[in-house]
Fold these 4 entries.
Entry 1:
Amino acid sequence: MSDALLRIKNLKTWLGNGEAPVCAVDGIDLEIHKGETFVLLGESGCGKSMTALSIMRLLPPAGRIVAGSIFLGETSLLDLPENAMRRERGGRMGMIFQEPMTSLNPVLTVGTQIAEAVLIHDPGQGRDPRGRVIELLKAVGIPDPEQRYREYPHQLSGGMKQRVMIAIALAGRPELLIADEPTTALDVTIQAQVLALMKELQQKTGMAVLLITHDLGVVAEVADRVAVMYAGQIVEVAPCEAFFRAPKHPYSRKLFQSIPGREKRARRLAVIRGTVPPLDREFDGCRFADRCDAVMDICRRQVPGWTPLAGGQGVRCFLEGGAGPDSTGSPPEAAAEKTGGRQGGHPPLLEVENLKVHFPIHKGVFRRVVGHVRAVDGVSLGISAGRTLAVVGESGCGKTTVGKAILQLPRPTAGSVRFEGDELTRLSGEALRRRRSDFQIIFQDPMASMNPRMLVGDIVEEGMLAQGIGADARQRRARVGELLEQVGLPAGAAGRYPHEFSGGQRQRICVARALAVQPKLIICDEPTSALDVSVQAQILNLLQELQQAYGLSYLFITHDISVVAYLAHEVAVMYLGRVVERGTVTEVLEHPLHPYTQALLSAVPVAEPGGRRQVIRLEGDMPSPSNPPAGCHFHPRCPQAMDKCQKAYPEAVRLSETRTVSCVLLDQDS
Amino acid sequence: MMRIYLPVGILLLWCLMALAGPLLPLEPDRIDLPHILAGPGVEYLLGNDDLGRPILDRLVMGARTSFVVAVGVVLVSSLVGVLAGAVAAYAGGWVDLLLMRIIDVFLAFPGILLAIALAGVMGPGIDNVIIALFVVGWVGYARLARAQILSLKRRDHVIAAVALGTGHVRIITRHLLPLIAAPLIIEATFGIAGIVIAEAGLSFLGLGVQPPAASWGSMIRDGARYMLVAPHMVLAPGLAILLVVLAVNLLGDRLRDWLDVRSARSVIERKNW
């Protein structure tokens, strides 16, 4: 095609020199047209970031491009000398990264950093780039650009920093913007802002965007065309519509099936068995063959070629979409219907009332307390046996602190935590230590939550030793074996160290460790946020099975609404240290009543083709919990705020047996 | 291979000289006037000093002083320092505040000056040198251990252990101390090097071993006056210190790898599960 802006032919990038270099990118062909948004979709380690870095020629020292060609317009990027390449980077091609916090220089003002890019790539501005910088800051939607010009990165929030990164990338008026997971580190409401901004800028400037992501929701939101990467290769390219209507490659289909969601509640999520093959060898057949449900003999004997299909679609598979109708998922296996209708008569397992956790801010030599960070400021919750309560909210809203304060780590400042009728805040010392076997915790980062110097067997055994479970070493050992088997780990796992396992397996070890003391409640603190979607499905399945088998209760802390929809029975939405809305999952997700819940839900990208829904844009960022706004904490950002909202924090209005909402809008109705 | 055998060899030689020195037929204090300031030769391999005493013999005898001081000071100050730092960080609150203020008082004095003052008050002698250097040295370990444990104790794996009901002693010994071993080993190896040099400094000022006994530091002090006419007097003990310090640092690096289960060179044995 003539209007191709970027053409990549047979690109191969290797990492490491030794005897077996890893083929991180193994023969990629792609074309990006002017003004389109092209999304590279794939799980971690599939080579999508390496592709982007190869285009920019910014590979890490161990990486090198061994074959292929990359053309930007008529320029062959791989043949340019380094100093000519420098003019392309930041000039015709801009790039933004995942971590806006580390991509900016902390000791230079925001203005200086943008000005630097302007001076290099936009000589037309002469010696004083200030005007252009402020224009750029305005273009990326930063309020008070004159003021922000003089500020340092630490004075800006994450979303603002990402906007500054985009402004720097725009300074050279690029034809192609490469965005490597630009919103992964941001909250959903901020992600919605940034994605909308990128779309808007693209329409204004006509640049093409190469967006790298693992999130099917983001794809549905912005993509014109999608390429799915697996194990260093592109396995499918399709226009966005067609991709969501009928993904052709078995891997793409599996990805769709493994996303949790409302409609999959009653059944297990699809999982992709096995793991990605190591990329340090030659392949005789299809790389996905060992994990594919539709595998045929030919898949193992012959490497599948690229099969172009109608409508600009293409796939690297022998099925050629022939097995099509199977597309968006016959349910893998229908598990038993969820144990419903249990909420009524049962006494709650855990009751939290008016929980407060304030962290003092010290100042000066005498460490005088000058204020408090009100991380949690009056939260009430309840969980019955065998049920799951999801606590949702954006980062900094205090949801993790709630979870830890229930475990008495740290001790709450005020309020009560009753577990089976016992007041935990009054227990201490040995009594509390004994009681700890009843409630356990699973963390977001499984690697950090295990002692790297202990064997997996010792890690799992630790709780049994602490709680005196199991008479002797032999019994404990047998139990460790059982537990590991139960969470789906191989028998030899006990004798290995945590670093020898993959992320999903590590999280399984953490589950086994928690189960070892036979808890009744497990606090799950974003247990799947650090995992790929197919691995997330495995862990969610495991948690579901364990709940059914042992009647466990979960307090599930997350920011991912699709996970909530999939496994929660009840939901509590938190904003700035308080629960703003509580109810059953149907009530809250189907009919959100609090304006914050409505905005939060609308900001979540939906993995559906027509999923471009009306986002309720929240302006600004969450205020600091050390100085919350007077009255309703949400009123400065609330689209429906009234005078009344500034006066007092609204009382929680009880709408039904299960549902409470803290908003004056509902107070009026009642 | 050089990176292991060389430092191990040097350190073994050092230990051997320290232990076997008194048993050897050495004459470190024999004054031989015709050989004053004589350079290295066949009869006296490393030459003689300003009183004609054989430098090789004095070097071997001096190794004992350096060894006792270095190993003694590092052992005692790292044990005391790590204990104090670990307790301060783990307990927190007023215990931490109190211990840290005490440490600040010690840190407020320039280290070697405090040691000089102490050695001066207590009188010269090896035992007093050890005490003086320990008083100055333990605060470094305490600071390091405290900082490391402060950052570790908020880690998820420690919180998980607390949540399981694990006791304080086990948390400190299983979850905290093993993980701060690497930086402490580095600190201790640099510490040994630093103490050898500090002892040399104190002896140089006349506060360490007393004449005629030899230490590497006092040998350098004596030789410094004749640097231009008889450089071997300074070179021999100087090179000895250099080699020991180098060997200890090289070995410290290795030790860290051996103790790390994630390293391919780990020597930690795997319990059979």
Note: The radius of gyration of chain A is 26 Å.
Entry 2:
Amino acid sequence: MIETLNNLLLGFSVALQPQILMYAFIGCFIGTLVGMLPGVGPLAGISMLLPATFGLNPIVAIVLLAGVYYGAMYGGSTTSILIRLPGEAASVMTCIDGYEMTRQGRAGPALAIAAIGSFVAGTLGVVGLMLLAPTLATFALRFGPPEYTALLLMGLLVLAYMTGGSIPKTLAMAALGLLLGMIGIDAMSGYTRFSFDVVELADGIGIVPVAVGLFGISEILLTASQQTPNLPKNPSLRELMPSRAELKQSAGPIARGSAIGFLIGIIPGSAHIISSFIAYGIERRVSQTPERFGHGAIEGVAGPESANNAAATGAFIPMMALGIPTSPVTAVMIAAVMVHGIAPGPMLITQQPELFWGFVASMYVGNVVLLILNLPLVGLFVSLLRIPYSYLYPCILAFCILGCYSVSNSVVDVYIMLAMGGVGYVLRKFDFDLAPVALGLVLAPMLELSLRQSLAMSGGSYGIFLERPIAVVMLVLGLVMLLVSLKPLLFKSTARDWRSRAGLDDVS
Amino acid sequence: MAMRSDQVSGLLLLALAIYVGWMNRVYPIGSLSEPGPGYVPLLLAIFLGSMGLLVAVWGRKSTPLAAMEWAEARRAIALLVACGLAAYALERLGYRITMAALLLFFLGVMERRKAWQVALASAGFSFASYYVFATLLRVPLPVSPWGV
């Protein structure tokens, strides 16, 4: 414990440097804007900003990008509450009761509770990160190729369970992402695969063009013809104060949302999106007056908002301790650190203590910045939404091209991004979830390498996965999740998926 | 019988899996104890094909293909083609001219905004973003042969 506190002091000595503070502020500010703009979202925002971090030192780069990430988590809630337009997917649940509160003239307390919940959850999440990541990193030193293979497979199976949609569709998308990850030079044999004689493809497909295409471009293709929504009056600072009763009602949901979000955040997948769904369902379940949900219940704002921010922080634990991205966002952040020759993983915390503890401390600072920034400046942020969408989307498209091109100064990356945008558009029309594609692409090289190494270690026997206790536990967990998620498909009349069990089938 | 959306998407995934499997034939599969570069792609192609087949088989009650709405498809194609042309022009005409032309097309032709607004927005965006990224943040962006 004393060692942790000493390390934290080291972290604060890094994070409170004026330069780091400034970048944390800039990151939170940009993130809030990004989270508010429909069609951008944290992933596309971070990807677009990535090239601008190449010239910065690694601590500054990661602090800036992390600020964008959790800033976007909060920013998405503002538009959800005020105009029923979720800036990013995790804020969908906030729309339900947040917008109802706005219609009842209670936009101020809804925004304030969202900010307070995000702050508390983010801070508790950082405490968890601080305590868990070093322990997990020590534990991860026992991992060999079979354990990594099992962990990555478990992540994909958990993702299939969590998405709650069609399991075959989700698994097909994960396979598609893994296949995209096969493009380029095979690290073990030196063969160049599926490159179609395009030199740039020999290096493989990067996560940035795929992520920006799938999530940013496809969203614009779907929504480019929409009108700018009517905005409510900006709430004044005085109107933002929630009443004592509202604060009391929100305390439990914030605590539960923080715990749920943090635990879900550690698991690979679209954690922050799922966590807000589950938190909403649980609040509705535990409420003594569930009929208020959907009609402006403040718990329906406090729970999901806390959960998605805690999940955003929890997602950093496997990223820092294992070097494994649990979401496309953390994958881009790993890329940002690797540009500087630093590989996240079990050795990072001992070899780069300034980076790890500086990052942890900067997240405390970032949460304070977000709280200070978001409440007084809510009017300014809302004004941005007054820009007609017909002006906004061309600029977003231009930023996508700029961001994608400048990652490796390659026009081929822009073509890949546009192709992925088209593919994403069609897949979304056919009701496919796109997150597994991005996650599959990121995990593909690790999964292939660890699988082939495991088979080589065992002389070609898949039994090696059953001989290693850690691998067995992870595979069994993954299989249980898969079987549970297959149940509704096989027994349609009686079984219900997690959304139903969480009480979400008759909301929205 | 009318095709359903999931049946079409499932069969397309199956076709993609077969294509990947066929493309993969040139890479050595190796043995179980020494898997080659074609081993994992083959496993994935088989898995993708199986999932595609499942999607198609279980998709009998999905939305009929004819009932799917594609109202924004023409606009989406126009946006993609314009961005593709911009990507082609980027290293030939430079960042500022390309972006100004792209925004001119989006705002002037597709959105039919007033001429002065279009000119201001397209020139303003391309030059301001160049200044921020290329000059302040030192991100290397292409310049036209004429130095713009």
Note: Chain A has 23 helices and two strands.
Entry 3:
Amino acid sequence: MERVAIIGIGLHPFGRTPGMSGLDQGVFAARKALNDADLKWSDIGIAFGGSRSSGHAMAATNQLGLTGLPFINLYTGCATGGSSLFAAANAIKSGAAKYAMALGFDKHERGAFSPSAKNNGVPSWVSETGLMVTTQFFALKLQRYMHDYNISNDTLVKVAEKAFQNGSLNPNAWRKNIVPYKEIAESKMISDPLRKYMFCSPAEGGAALILTSETEVRKMGAKAVFLEATEMRTKNYGSFEVYDTCLAVDIKPTATSNAAKAAFESAGIGPDDIDVLQIQDTEVGAEIMHLAENGFCKHGDQESLIQNGETLISGKIPVNTDGGCIANGEPIGASGLRQIYEICLQLRGQAGLRQVLNSPQVGYTHVYGSPGVSAVNILSAS
Amino acid sequence: MEDKNFGTVGSLWSWTMQNLPPKAPYFLHENKENFKIYGVGFIEMPCGVKIKSRLQINDLKFEIGQLMELKTSTLKKPNGETLPTFEFGVKKG
């Protein structure tokens, strides 16, 4: 089947931008992406976008232009960016439009998200009695995982240390300062075993991607990154996902594992063929566990991989080269698109100080959202 | 749907602590100064199902695999109303 190509990428720096709304940051990113693709907004035939806290993505048309295009607002929790790309890619495959945009932006208040029980199909007593806090889910999943697969506290600290190191090399990151090992290891305990500097925080930012077909790229003679696979899965019975109030007798593979498996099957390649990757790192444990769930190592092998520096920019499988969610913060609508933006930069050889050496050819992105949804992409440079 | 009796004793499958007050609609959000740290865990019942629950904190340290016992408790809303709920605590003896 003909591949989908990404021909334009745009980002508004993540972090805090006082005086600029989330929507404005989305419009900024959209214009950057149009400029990168050398297209006008009126060229875009369909758009998909999302935000959690900054209103309807379609409102961007007030500033970009009222061209009348179909514009679909969507929301899949923290996986919103991945879902926008999934929808836009499938619109291109179907022939619905020549050019499609995936747009995401957000501007969140400080502090942890306060998820609604009702909106997630969970009885209200669960949140009223203090059992519906996302940090608890991360901690409970990780605590059990560390017990089952011998992951050390030291490895948790090293994942955070890498995130800040990589963020310091990324001019668009929120956290641009290196945080020393000791400071991470001694930071406030939030939810055992996870400490303050091991989490990403809600933030602000915008990201946009422009897609077209491979045929069109050849006609235009444009530079492009190609989607070898784009897959999305929701939870199935028995998997351990966020906001679960009980777990099944036999725990089954997660939405992430299922999306990853489908993506590798459809691309016809394996995890060993990936040169650079983005893995949802809402906190350090998520990066560790998602590495195995996506197929990049066996459960438990993360301990030696990380201790040996293999996930650093200079390692065998560089993970979250832009600092990931931990150094960039998480504007929900934009976060999944930021991951793809970074992989495009890496495959185009434009990642500056954090460029993975020896011209990476194949990249991977994974995003995870509540209440149990994952989107995965495999991208190639040619 | 049918009722099933899971029993009252299980083993601790995973645990964490809630060290910061959750945001609304958690009952105690209005008076943060009264917030008391609580535990959260999954208890694996003899049938294999794992139930998410608040954990009672005492001087005992949590350890995966330790026996936990079901207790009833009451949470107080800011308006004075109470909500009966359940918690698990480390089984003694």
Note: Residues 71 and 91 of chain B are 10 Å apart (CA to CA).
Entry 4:
Amino acid sequence: MFRYFIYLQWKSFFRSANLSKGLALKIVMIFFAIYMLVSFTFLGIGLFFMLEKFFPDADPMVILSQYLVYWIIIELLARYFMQKLPVMDVKPMLLLPVKKSTITHYILGKSGFSFFNLLSMVIFIPFGMVLIAHDYPVANVLIWLLSILGIVMSINYINFIINKSDKIFFGLLLSLLGIYGLEYFNIFSVTQYLGQMFYTLYANPVLTVVPIALALITYFLNYKFLRSRIFLDASLKKEVKTVEASDLSWTKRFGSIAPFLQLDLKLLWRNKRTKTQVFMSLAMIFYGLIFYKMDDFGPTSPMMVFVGIFITGIFLTNFGQFIPAWDSAYYSMMMSQNIPLKKYLESKSGLISVSVVVMFLLSVPYVYFGWQALAINFSCALYNLGVNVPLILFFGSFNKKRIDLDKSAFGNMQGAGAAQFLIMLPIIVLPLLLYIGFKYLVSFEVALMVIGGVGIITFAFRNMLLNYVTKAYRKKKYGMISGFKETNS
Amino acid sequence: MIVAKNLTKQYGGKQVLNIENLEIPKGQSFGLVGNNGAGKTTFFSLLLDLIEPSAGEIINNNVQVNTSEDWKPFTSSFIDETFLIGYLTPEEYFNFIGELRGQNKADVNALLSRFEDFFHGEILEQNKYLRDLSKGNQKKVGIVASFIGNPEVVILDEPFANLDPTTQIRLKGIIKDLANTQGVTVLVSSHDLIHVTEVCERIVVLNKGEIVRDIETSTETLQELESFFAG
């Protein structure tokens, strides 16, 4: 039986729409996966030496044990977003003469081989090898790795028990912050105690039964839960959400684009993929912290212009690059309804422009790192408003790939094509070149004025530019309609 | 009202539609029947400018549909669920369509109140998104939405499929009323010969993209159609 399941799995992987996508994207994805694996392996190898360097007086194994709790919580948090039990795949199996217990074991067993589990083991196994090379007792290390495997599997199955509960997610988040906070302010060292606990796992190989038992218990709990639910009306049914209605009448003041604006706001708020996009964009405001703190660059380095364009334009690129694919599910309706194409585009451009302003306002506190930061972000925001908004809309006319709104945004390449990678270039490189040119030829202030000025001037011509963009959309209309209909592309 | 001239559509050299001349006068209820692949949906998609004709043209009320967008204000349609916006509630969807067609909330509500028995208490005030409604209920929403804004041309692709018997009967009444008393040109396609003969004044049979029958509906029509399709 399992042989058939594996055969089907193999088929579904190699015949999946994702894999048969453009060759370029495929290669990028494979490289990315290999890159992740290789860098995690090196992290595993290097971990021992890093710990030795940073904590010269301590046994790296003790230190690692102390940090294991962070790893467990962070791993659970990450999996909350990215890993889901693939229960929907078994729907066609229900009618066939296959035992439900077999199906359940298959689903759960399969998840044991997920990429996440692999990633963890790719860190710990090389770390263990380095330990052995440093004359740690071989038996202890090997059995410790077995314990780690038990913990990884426990995390794997606990994640499904948590099953996307927001409460537990925030609980985990709070406990992570709490543990770190207690540690940071020297109030109470949780890691000290938990570290001892994890170290005992290594020192006392017999205890390896604990994590393994935990893995088995969580597996069994999952099994019991899932087995009782393999019915069409229980867990296999899509969740029906009740409506979160909100009053959007304030959009009326935007005049004739109001209905589209309302639609876009609902689009953003009521769909998983767009919602995560919004949160990710907002979180990106912290991106600046990494760069502003680095002294190597200096406050007027071109790097800061990159940061400025990136921060104020993060929603612009994230959301804008997939216009009009966000509406792909009902694009033929939009095209046959009484909708002037230009109004549709104006509404999108309005929404993106607001996001640029919001991101700029959020970035104002960076003035702490010097007035230059504020000045750069301001002129970058102007540039984004004037040039990049119509530019991204124009690039949108090349979109032909459908987007399913219900799927999460993490690692979701749906709708992406070569064009999506290319558009990043003019959006970021163009203002950078402008800045570098004028900064070194004239001065920092002039360079900023040029960037901002270009933004203002193009903004004045926005109506003309939008007309041009509208024409591009009209020309590509039939291609978009038929492209958006291909569910499997 | 609608004129198609020398209209052809080809996909990779294969002809899927070829209509030399078809005229549909204003206020007619027009039925299109044919087997799978006969070209019904292709014709409707051409009429809505969702696909490009390989040759020829369609003129809707003196507007050539693939060169001007001026047919949109008086033409409405429901082809399939891709005409619905899944993350809206039925009410929001109706109001959105209403705004596109220059109707305010009160106008839309007045229209919806006429369809209460059609909705059968399963559409309005359910606090559900369209994506979570059953296929049949989604269809009801799409069909009623196509009546918003007093359109002069209504295009419905397979409106009877997926509907329960009660709703089918009610829909037939609605379509007849639209054409007979309100002068709306209604274009309907269907696999179900009984429904079409009951509803439509005129029935055109498509076979492999060509018009093979053009019948004024009478008492013998159903028999004639059945004998044609029996082969």
Note: The mean pLDDT of chain A is 83.
